[in-house]
Design goal:
Elements (H helix, E strand, L loop, with lengths): L44 H6 L6 E4 L5 E6 L5 E8 L13 H8 L11 H7 L3 E7 L4 E8 L3 H13 L7 H19 L6 H9 L14 H6 L2 H11 L5 E7 L3 H12 L22 E7 L5 E9 L6 H13 L4 H9 L3 E10 L3 E10 L5 H18 L3 H18 L3 H15 L4 H11 L2 H11 L5 E7 L46 E4 L5 E6 L5 E8 L13 H9 L8 H11 L2 E6 L4 E8 L3 H13 L5 H18 L3 H14 L15 H6 L2 H11 L5 E7 L3 H12 L24 E6 L5 E13 L5 H12 L4 H6 L10 E4 L5 E11 L3 H16 L6 H13 L1 H4 L3 H13 L6 H10 L3 H11 L6 E6 L1 H9 L5 E4 L3
Parallel strand pairs: 2-6, 7-11, 13-17, 18-22, 18-23
Antiparallel strand pairs: 1-2, 3-5, 3-6, 4-5, 8-10, 8-11, 9-10, 12-13, 14-16, 14-17, 15-16, 19-21, 19-22, 20-21
Length: about 950
């Protein structure tokens, strides 16, 4: 057992703060008072910013590779992050989407490691493994156990220097299909086509930022071997990249290993990222689009200066004040004020050469969108004319600094901060300059920047409910799939990859306990990685606490709780959080309800004052009840437009039955009929039944000692007493239905992709020992190279990703397959899924190779699984929910290593039965129904309502 060690990057970040007085408040909810509680103040933001530091060393190889090293031994892991200075803005005409397509090709293996990079790195124990592409860069990252670092550097260097021999026409065609399904998945969402229109309106023809990163179907179709090879040669040289190593590594060791594996790679062509000006529209442009959405949305958009311009921070602050903060001008005017909007937003999306400033409103159903937009514009014009207040700026900056501090806990988070600064500004400390700019910005600077840039002609976009514009899909036979054969690449054979050393068993931190004066148990772990305290106050409730005839009551009660106490109204609560840099949240899983607090520890005491006020003194103001009710009804209408939400709402009752506590959507949003009928008294009763100290447990991860945390928790909650009403009890006595294979098709016209969701209720509960079953299902359903994902994504290219998961509830748990697939392959995909399950269960169980990579990957990855306080907090809560001992995590490796392939096969066969799977398919029935009927299963068609 261990204590979480202090991180050198953020040690001693903050000085002390005089504690604010805590009010001991009443239990019974009451109407909100017009007198607001005394304002809570935290540490000066300048004190926070001055102490943020990520130590680094930099060196460069002769081939131009820039290397940054952040030494931090808090955990036995190293983040390996490679950033290439090329993105979608660098794509020539006719090659849109190539940067992102090439990102996918980089995961297909390399000349001296020809298997999937994801499969190989998973077996090495990697966590936080992925790659991303954006306008300005492409990056690849993974966090690995220290003994796997050398092996990882070998693989990354092989991808950088020896990739093309592994990229065959077959690989290109496969990943082309995967990327096009990724595009369909995004395009299939409500408002999913609007970003394309925004870019084309804001930027002139030929501008580097005019096209989206995902690209066009036609250009992806045209990608040939020669063009993708040239992309690699032109852009993936070591002199065009930054390598960051962050974690359990020294500069000397980094120099040795990086020189050994990357030093022999030849420099590539000198790459100068595409220049791009900040275009101004000749005149205002207005555009109206139609989509299958429930609510109109209106936005205003401008192109503004890029990352390094002096006006970028003031404009970002302006966006936060306007519509980014929870206390923003638009929230106060349109959401809290006249309540004509169900949501607002504003942001300044910052890129290397340009930024995009926008603000928008989602109009509440029944409201005139033009009138609401006029009110939105009035708030914008008022801010631009008068500027923000200093208090508004202070709240923006405190929130920004707090999030920055909390983001420094993870090795990969620090690696990304350093890489971004080096890549775009030539300075790994660029983040410090940004913090300083935020801390010093003035109201006048914000006002001046707005007037300089946002008085220019605007692009206005309105999206109205209606039939979507025609969708341009991929060609049946992509032109790039049948080109003139490309020349053969001569592979360069290197020495074999180094072996991965022994990875020590995870050393989970010591768990301590205390009890508050009123009997609430405190489960605590000490972590000094960052000066932050994270608290989860859990109640034995959850979505399963809803009565079958009152679905949605529990989460509506939580939503109203967040909007005002008897001493602070909704606006005062939002402003208090922002002043403290604290984050309060309420939510529910199926089995638990949680109130969470994340705070820089210097501000913990006033943050706990706020936390306790919200929990103990909810006002349930009648006006707030009505406002949140209207928002929930709008959300329910929106869920009917979202393909995944439609599937998730339909599936649970089909396998659990209508009356079982688990037979309701995991969103907990309820039904319009119930939400409309609920009264304030119903919500007060729901609160008194479930949100109470005799139904609660506290989980804490903090850099403060347990004694200090307990003292502050006692001051906030120790005198909280349970009400006289009976504590809630969940009833799981409803029998489960006997299910058989059938299909429920929900008709969603104009869907280029279908959502397939299938599964059953398993004969196991979350409190059972399901470790072996989980390992078996890793092979079958959850690993990147699981049987079903390897088939539908990595072999057939019909999906962006497929997963079959055990959803671990405290009681009887479901098995759910989730497969978004291209519409014309819907029926074949259901059959392919059934074939994979039947083959596995029919004798083609876990192979020796699958067994080895699963056992090694699951044991090695434990080293990085509890790197952050959030991960530790989650483990504490899971152990409590499922009845596991504190030593559970430390015992995992031995148990996993002892598991045989035969045991994995037997566990899967005993639990999963595809003949009981009920399938829900959301798609265009005109295209999909004939495909499904050909499968020979009963098909029931439902409309969205």
């Amino acid at each position: 057992m261990r204590r979480l060690a202090t991180s050198a990057a953020v040690a001693a970040l903050m000085a002390g703060l005089a504690p604010a007085a805590l009010a001991h408040t009443a239990v019974a909810p009451a109407a909100a008072s017009s007198t607001q509680a005394q304002e809570l103040r935290g540490a000066p933001v300048a004190d926070l910013i001055a102490r943020v530091d990520i130590p680094w060393k930099r060196f460069q190889l002769d081939n131009g590779l820039t290397v940054l090293v952040n030494e931090d031994h808090k955990a036995p892991v190293v983040a390996v992050s490679v950033w290439y200075n090329v993105g979608s803005k660098d794509e020539p005409k006719g090659s849109t989407g190539f940067a992102h397509l090439f990102e996918h090709l980089m995961f297909g293996g390399s000349e001296n490691s020809p298997s999937s990079h994801i499969q190989t790195m998973n077996a090495a124990g990697a966590t936080a493994l992925n790659g991303t592409t954006w306008f300005d860069r492409t990056n690849y990252f993974q966090t690995v156990p220290t003994p796997a670092l050398e092996y990882t550097l070998y693989l990354e260097s092989d991808r950088m220097g020896h990739l093309l021999g592994q990229v065959s026409q077959e690989v290109l065609d496969l990943q082309r299909g995967v990327v096009q399904n990724e595009k369909r998945q995004g395009d299939n969402q409500p408002y999913g086509l609007t970003y394309y229109a925004t870019l084309e309106a804001l930027f002139p023809e030929g501008h580097p930022y005019r096209h989206s990163t995902i690209g066009s179907m036609a250009d992806l179709d045209a990608a040939s071997m020669d063009t993708v090879r040239q992309w690699f040669i032109d852009n993936y040289g070591p002199n065009n990249s930054v390598l960051v190593l962050s974690g359990d590594i020294t500069e000397a060791k980094a120099r040795e290993l990086v020189s050994k594996y990357f030093g022999g790679i030849k420099a590539g062509p000198v790459n100068t990222p595409a220049a791009a000006d900040v275009p101004t529209l000749a005149a205002p442009v207005s555009q109206t689009l139609h989509d299958r959405v429930a609510q109109a949305r209106v936005s205003r958009n401008w192109v503004t200066p890029g990352m390094l311009h002096e006006d970028t921070v003031p404009l970002s602050v302006a966006a936060s004040v306007l519509g980014g903060l929870n206390s923003s001008r638009l929230d106060n005017a349109l959401v809290r004020g006249d309540q004509t909007a169900s949501g607002v937003s504003a942001g300044n999306q910052v890129f290397q050469r340009v930024s995009m400033f926008s603000y928008s409103v989602t109009v509440k159903p029944g409201q005139d969108h033009e009138a609401v937009a006029a009110k939105m514009d009035a708030e914008f014009n008022r801010l631009m004319a008068d500027g923000p207040t200093q208090d508004e700026i202070d709240r923006v900056v405190t929130q920004y600094a707090s999030r920055t501090i909390q983001g420094l806990e993870q090795a990969n988070g620090k690696a990304s901060v350093l890489a971004e600064g080096q890549l775009y500004a030539g300075d790994p400390d660029h983040y410090k300059k940004q913090l300083e700019r935020y801390a010093s910005v003035t109201p006048q600077q914000v006002k001046d920047a707005m007037q300089r840039w946002l008085t220019r002609p605007v692009y206005s976009q309105t999206v109205l409910p209606g039939e979507r514009e025609a969708y341009v899909d991929a060609a049946a036979t992509p032109s790039g799939a049948t080109p003139t054969p490309a020349a053969e690449i001569v592979r360069v054979q290197r020495d074999p990859a180094p072996a991965i050393g022994d990875v020590k068993n995870v050393d989970f931190p010591d768990v301590e306990r205390a009890t508050l004066s009123n009997g609430i148990e405190v489960v605590y772990v000490h972590s000094t990685a960052v000066p932050v305290t994270r608290i989860a106050l859990e109640f034995d409730a959850g979505i399963a606490a809803d009565r079958a005839d009152r679905l949605g009551a529990h989460t509506l009660m939580l939503n109203v709780m967040e909007e005002g106490s008897t001493t602070r109204d909704s606006l005062a609560l939002a402003e208090a959080q922002e002043r403290l840099g604290a984050t309060l949240g309420f939510g529910s899983s199926m089995d638990r309800t949680v109130a969470s607090l994340s705070s820089v520890s210097t501000n913990l005491e006033p943050s706990l004052t706020l936390f306790a006020d919200v929990l103990r003194n909810p006002a349930f103001s009648p006006s707030e009840v009505e406002r949140i009710r209207a928002q929930r009804l709008a959300r329910l209408a929106s869920e009917k437009t979202q393909p995944a939400a439609l599937a998730s709402r339909a599936f649970p009752s089909l396998v659990y039955g209508e009356t079982h506590p688990y037979g309701r959507p995991s969103s907990g949003s309820g039904t319009p009929e119930v939400i409309t009928a609920l009264t304030r008294e119903d919500l007060v009763g729901e609160y008194q039944t479930w949100i109470r100290p005799d139904n609660a447990k506290l989980f804490v991860v903090s850099d403060l000692p347990l004694s200090q945390v307990t003292e502050q928790l006692n001051a906030a909650f120790g005198d909280w007493r349970a009400p006289s009403v009976a504590k809630g009890v969940k009833d799981f006595s409803a029998p489960l239905p006997q299910t058989s294979a059938r299909i429920v098709l929900i008709d969603r016209p104009q869907s280029p992709q279908s959502i397939i969701m299938g599964g059953q209720v398993l004969p196991v509960s979350g409190t059972d020992d399901n470790l072996v079953l989980g390992l078996g299902n890793t092979v079958l359903g959850t690993d990147f190279m699981s049987r079903i994902n390897a088939d539908l994504r990595e072999t057939k290219g019909w999906s962006y990703g497929v997963r079959g998961s055990i959803m671990t509830y405290q009681g009887r748990s479901p098995y759910i397959v989730n497969a978004p697939v291209q519409a014309d392959r819907t029926g074949e995909s259901v059959q392919a899924l059934l074939d994979q399950y039947n083959r596995f269960l029919g004798g083609e169980g876990v192979t020796p190779a699958e067994h080895e990579r699963t056992i090694k990957g699951d044991t090695r990855s434990l080293a990085g699984s509890y790197e952050t306080s959030n991960a530790v907090l989650g483990a504490l809560r899971s152990n409590s929910l499922y009845g596991r001992p504190d030593s559970y995590q430390e015992g995992l490796a031995a148990r996993i290593n002892a598991t045989t392939a035969a045991q994995m096969d037997a566990a899967v066969k005993a639990a999963i039965d595809p003949t009981k799977f009920v399938w829900v398919v959301v798609g265009d029935a005109e295209k999909v129904k004939p495909q499904l009927e050909a499968l020979g299963l009963p098909v029931e068609v439902r409309d969205i309502d």
